[in-house]
């Protein structure tokens, strides 16, 4: 047993230092190294989830300003180059095919307008043009220079100035379609001296004429109603067959419907319609 | 030299420690540059010290072996995040201690001793001579009993107190280094150290008093 003098020298610190002597045998380290190597290889092959890499990415603060600048520059460039396209789409959201056809007509307008401008002034339809409409024709006449200088940009902007309303675009579309299906009829009604683009301008103008047409009629009915109100002056040189067909078509178009009676019963509404041929 | 390195030099007061930290940082730079084999130098240099810390915290050699390997794996995986804000061994200790504390919290109710043999060498002969005058088998039995009582007393300490006294008395870290590893103030380290010594004196009084 220890005597009291020896024990008095032993402290907690000296006892704890004994723990330094608790060391594993040398063989232990060979096993340790082998296991560690296996774990290291496993860790190298193991795919870490992406969120484990986030702190490391955020730690690289030097790259953040560069990335932010690149994103900002890309955004600015995108807005700059795609804004005109979006503007056109916003201005003609419901036109669809009509807008495309009007674009094509407007692209053809300059040449036709320059060539046909004197004849427009001589014709009856052209006499009814207001000053604003003539400005439109004049603007269309200026279009080729823009097309030459700017390429597609001026072509995109042209329909915005030459189309006044969706109704005028519909009329232009129907006229164009009618011209394809029945060119003789169109020639007889409108005359051959007006080109298609000039007719677009003419057709798009008298909006007050359409005020009398009910909105619920189909496009075809509205166009035919327009024709019905016009004085029918086919050229004397028009073939007899064409005149007959034109008269028959206008006769068919004289179809009007009228609400003759409205009844209310509970939460129901009944309408009485009378068709007159 | 960036502010982090200056701050690191302020923490590491000893010139030897500073040289050691600079040498480690050079090796770490090589590993970060893609020379994976250079990490083996760091493993060979620190494996015994890291194992010692983990072993003294767990009092289980198998757990200590696994946790030491895990600590080196984590350090290897995170080596690119090491920017030299502290010395490498402090950073490695921090990983090892956090790994061990996490293990101890998970297995709070499942702990048993698996102790290494107490080797008698020049560093502890004087203490052992003071503790016992026995020889042969009686001496070995006595030392075994002392070792168990010592580990038992350490395991009765709370985890933070056990960590502080292990790092200070057994591994020889300074107060500032322990504060860096544990993420607390030096005052907290001193306070915990004082309490842990008082507790161990009460538990090991049989071997301290006549």
What can you tell me about this protein's structure?
The complex is a heterodimer of chains A (277) and B (210). Chain A contains 14 helices and 2 strands; from the N terminus they run ααααααααααααααββ. Chain A is mainly alpha-helical and 277 residues long. In chain A, α6 (97-122) packs across α8 (131-150) and α6 packs across α9 (152-162). Chain A starts with a helix and ends with a strand. The model of chain B has no long low-confidence stretch (mean pLDDT 83). Chain B is mostly helical and 210 residues long. Chain B is built from 11 helices and no strands. Classes of the chains: A mainly alpha (277), B mainly alpha (210). The interface between A and B is large, with 37 and 48 residues.
Flag low-confidence runs of chain A: 1-7, 86-96, 108-162, 198-205
The side-by-side strand order for the widest beta sheet of chain A comes to 1-2
Mean pLDDT of chain B: 83
Assign the structural class of chain B, choosing from mainly alpha, mainly beta, alpha/beta, alpha+beta, or little secondary structure.
Answer: mainly alpha
Pattern of helices and strands of chain A? HHHHHHHHHHHHHHEE
**Rg of chain A from C-alpha positions?**
42 Å
What is the fold's blueprint, element by element?
The complex is a heterodimer of chains A (277) and B (210).
Chain A: H1 4-9, H2 12-17, H3 26-45, H4 54-59, H5 63-91, H6 97-122, H7 124-127, H8 131-150, H9 152-162, H10 166-181, H11 183-190, H12 196-204, H13 219-229, H14 240-253, E1 256-265, E2 268-276
Helix pairs in contact in A: 5-9, 6-8, 6-9, 6-10, 6-12, 8-9, 10-11, 10-12, 11-14
Chain B: H1 3-11, H2 15-32, H3 39-58, H4 61-77, H5 88-106, H6 125-131, H7 137-156, H8 159-170, H9 175-182, H10 186-203, H11 205-208
Helix pairs in contact in B: 3-4, 3-5, 4-5, 5-9, 8-10, 9-10
């Amino acid at each position: 047993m220890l005597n009291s003098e020896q024990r008095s020298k032993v402290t907690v610190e000296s006892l704890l230092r004994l723990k330094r002597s608790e060391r594993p045998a040398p063989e232990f380290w060979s096993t340790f190294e082998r296991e560690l190597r296996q774990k290291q290889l496993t860790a190298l092959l193991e795919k870490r989830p992406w969120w484990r890499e986030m702190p490391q990415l955020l730690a690289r603060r030097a790259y953040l300003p560069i990335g932010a600048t690149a994103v900002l520059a890309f955004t600015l460039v995108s807005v700059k180059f795609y804004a005109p396209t979006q503007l056109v789409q916003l201005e003609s959201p419901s036109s669809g095919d009509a807008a495309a056809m009007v674009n094509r007509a407007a692209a053809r307008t300059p040449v036709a307008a320059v060539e046909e401008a004197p004849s427009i002034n001589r014709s009856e339809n052209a006499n009814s043009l207001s000053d604003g409409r003539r400005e439109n024709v004049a603007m269309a006449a200026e279009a080729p220079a823009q097309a030459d200088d700017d390429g597609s940009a001026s072509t995109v902007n042209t329909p915005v100035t030459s189309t006044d309303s969706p109704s005028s675009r519909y009329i232009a579309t129907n006229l164009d379609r009618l011209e394809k299906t029945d060119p003789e009829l169109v020639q007889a009604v409108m005359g051959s001296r007006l080109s298609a683009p000039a007719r677009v301008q003419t057709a798009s103008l008298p909006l007050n004429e359409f005020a009398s047409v009910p909105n619920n009629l189909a496009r075809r009915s509205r166009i035919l109603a327009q024709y019905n109100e016009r004085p029918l002056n086919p050229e004397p040189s028009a073939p007899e067959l064409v005149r007959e067909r034109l008269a028959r078509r206008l006769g068919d178009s004289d179809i009007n419907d009228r609400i003759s009676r409205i009844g209310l019963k509970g939460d129901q509404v009944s309408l009485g319609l009378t068709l007159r041929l | 030299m960036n502010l982090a390195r200056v701050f690191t030099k302020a923490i590491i007061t000893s010139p030897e420690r500073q040289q050691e930290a600079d040498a480690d940082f050079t090796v770490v730079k090589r590993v970060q540059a893609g020379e994976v084999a250079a990490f083996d130098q760091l493993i060979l240099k620190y494996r015994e010290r890291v194992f010692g810390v983990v072993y003294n915290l767990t009092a289980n050699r198998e757990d200590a072996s696994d946790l030491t390997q895990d600590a080196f794996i984590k350090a290897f995986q995170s080596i690119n995040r090491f920017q030299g804000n502290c010395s490498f061994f402090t950073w490695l200790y921090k990983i090892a201690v956090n790994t061990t504390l996490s293990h101890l919290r998970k297995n709070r109710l499942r702990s048993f001793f698996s102790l290494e043999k107490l080797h008698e060498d020049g560093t502890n002969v004087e203490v052992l001579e003071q503790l016992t005058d026995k020889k042969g088998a009686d001496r070995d039995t006595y030392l075994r009993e002392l070792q168990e009582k010592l580990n038992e007393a350490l395991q009765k300490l709370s985890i933070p107190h056990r960590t502080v006294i292990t790092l200070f008395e057994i591994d020889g870290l300074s107060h500032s280094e322990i504060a860096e590893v544990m993420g607390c103030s030096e005052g907290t380290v001193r306070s915990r150290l004082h309490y842990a010594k008082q507790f161990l004196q009460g538990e090991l009084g049989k071997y301290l008093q006549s």
